[in-house]
Amino acid sequence: MALRHFGAAAAIALTVGLSASPALAVTEIQWWHAMTGANNDVIVKLATDFNASQSDYKVIPTYKGNYPDTMNAGIAAFRAGNAPHIMQVFEVGTATMMAATGAVKPVYKLMADAGEKFDPKIYLPAITGYYSTSKGEMLSFPFNSSSTVMWVNLDELKKANVEIPKTWPETFEAAKKLKAAGHDTCGFSGSWITWVNLEQLSAWHNVPLASKANGLDGFDTVLEFNGPLQVKHLETLVELQKTKTYDYAGRTNTGEGRFTSGECPIYLTSSAFFGNVKAQAKFNFTAVPMPYYPDVKGAPQNSIIGGASLWVMGGKSAEEYKGVAKFLTFLSDTDRQVYIHKASGYLPITKAAYAKAKEEGFYKDQPYLETPLLELTNKEPTENSRGLRLGNMVQLRDVWSEEIEQALAGKKTAKQALDAAVERGNTMLRQFEKTAVK
Amino acid sequence: MQKQAIFQSRLLPYALVAPQLAIVLIFFYWPALQAVIQSFLLQDAFGLSTTFVWFENYVELFKDAAYFEAIVRTFLFSFAIAVSSLSFALLLAVMADKPLRGSMLYRTLLIWPYAVAPPVVGVLWIFMLHPSLGVLSRYLRNMGVDWNPLLDGDQAAALIILAAAWKQISYNFLFFLAGLQAIPKSVFEAAAIDGARPMRRFWTVTFPLLSPTIFFLLVVNIVYAFFDTFGIIDTMTRGGPGTSTVTLVYKVYSDGLLGGNLGSSAAQSVILMVMVIVLTGIQFRFVERKVTY
């Protein structure tokens, strides 16, 4: 009996399978990403919705580990001739991806080849600028973007009778008062030391980090962040470190718990810290724009982004590219961008989506979610604030951190440390230039 | 005891060792050869442009003063890790070897930490000794110690050595315990009857009889400290503060895997390989003479 049913079922399955052969010709699109938790749910939902919206293409998302893991997996797969169609790459991997001409298919070209409607002007320039050439050609598709903001423990500031600081001198004063009011191990601190105190600091004050528009205009770029502004800033941090008014919290974001625990009432890190703050902080908080030096003309400029973008890998068929292009159009949809923004806390990438979220009153009770957008769109991006594109960025950051740590530990002066960071970094850039595909 | 086996067929012994040889060739010699080849190349991460540069990767390394510092640091770290984990494991093994109730239970418990992966070890120690997250660091601060391995290089180095040595104690313990149990009890009894006190019995009877185990573990521990500690360094300090915890193997890992600079990374791993071969050679040539099997 059971066997007969099985036979019948198999027969039906076979006929259905044969008769539905056009449906089997669905083009599969592999999407490798590095999102976990709630953000992974967002990715799965986007893929499912896209697959349900049409029947020619099927997007298959696969989690490949954290950002460096995903990128390494993609590179290894490419070397084995088996790369995915879409790869999520963090912003520091941008130069490596861009240098790999032939390994990637630039998004503007993809859209043109596939005949997909594509207007780069609908995207927020502060976000797309990072992933575009100087001619405005979009190379990768922005997906999850964040920026540096200053997280503030409102309860502790109130207790110490301190206003939310707007400038760096105000921040230093506030930290001193907070220290006097009992925060004797940490007045203020931050994560990602180089991102916050070199990269963002330079862009925010319209000062170059490197020549050639911070590397966007070519790989023959030279580091320039040992100028008076950056030296002065580091000197001040070194001075404040001695009394723990500022306390260094590590190269990555391992120190973020110091904010949520209440130890550091002022903390500079990514806006993507939002999820953790909301879940763990037992106090009133907000996020305000990064401080600036009022004596720098034109400051603040605009901030640059962190997060990741989607790169389309090379060597695929026209049909597959058509599917990828359709998927990118699907992602650019206003409602969908609003959904991504709300569900993940990352920024919307189109102007329309930002306007819509604002219209819906999304930022009324959560003004801190608008802060990174206000920073990014503060002014029209300049040569110094459009973004960074430096080769071997992961290693570069480690070298810069090493030197900054030497300064904070009192082994070198701020100037010596930054000079050394520039010199060592330039050697690495020349090395990268040699290997980049011309 | 007859040591020589007698094979009827001439081919059989070759057939029997063939799988073993194949595994060694595929999983050791092949990748090692790849590393040597890669070390002569300058290549982008995707392998799209490859230039043959002879010894340029090596020359660059030896021009870099930081590389020499890393070599010295690696030797210091390895020595400290091997000595501390060996001596502590020996102490534990000697104590666990005593006929006590429940010895099976705590012997098992002592072996467990070996199953922990290096990055997990790193995280574990971070939770104890991170300047802001750490439980122990609070006590240290209260005792007046300015504990901050994020900025103090010596403290960071101590932290890495501590975590790396801790991880290896279980493994050493296992071998020491087996070694101790292989020593015939009658030797101790004879020594005891002759009036030797416990400390003297240990140094004149146990220690020499344990020397093959100690020698074996010394080699294993040095190789461990050279090759297997990058996971701990990466999770705990990422080489910092400054460069005070950058060891040779961590540099291979960060330059190659994180930085995508495969040529330099390959050159470094070749140098590292040569160093360990030489080191092991020296150990077998000189230290082994002091070993009584």
Q: What report would you give on this structure?
A:
The complex is a heterodimer of chains A (438) and B (293). By secondary structure, chain A is an alpha/beta fold. Chain A folds into two domains: 27-146 and 305-369, D-Maltodextrin-Binding Protein, domain 2; 148-302 and 391-437, 3-Layer(aba) Sandwich (D-Maltodextrin-Binding Protein, domain 2). Chain A has helices spanning 2-19, 21-24, 37-53, 67-79, 94-99, 107-114, 125-128, 154-159, 168-180, 193-204, 211-214, 228-242, 257-260, 274-280, 318-332, 334-344, 351-359, 371-376, 393-408, 414-435, and strands at residues 27-33, 57-63, 86-90, 104-105, 141-153, 188-190, 266-270, 285-288, 305-313. In chain A, strands 1, 2, 3, 4, 5, 6, 7, 8 and 9 form a nine-stranded mixed beta sheet that branches. In chain A, helix 3 links the parallel strand 1 (27-33) and strand 2. In chain A, helix 3 runs antiparallel to helix 16 (334-344), helix 6 (107-114) crosses helix 15 and helix 16 packs across helix 17 (351-359). Chain A is globular. Mean pLDDT of chain A is 89; it is low at 11-23. By secondary structure, chain B is mainly α. Chain B has a single domain, classed as Orthogonal Bundle (MetI-like fold), CATH 1.10.3720. In chain B, strand 1 (41-43) and strand 2 (50-52) form a beta hairpin. Chain B is globular and about 75 Å long. In chain B, 33% of the residues are buried. The model of chain B has no long low-confidence stretch (mean pLDDT 87). The chains are: A alpha/beta (438), B mainly alpha (293).
Identify the notable features of this structure and list them briefly.
heterodimer, A: 438 residues, D-Maltodextrin-Binding Protein, domain 2, 9-stranded mixed sheet, 20 helices, 9 strands, 48% helix, B: 293 residues, mainly alpha, MetI-like fold, 13 helices
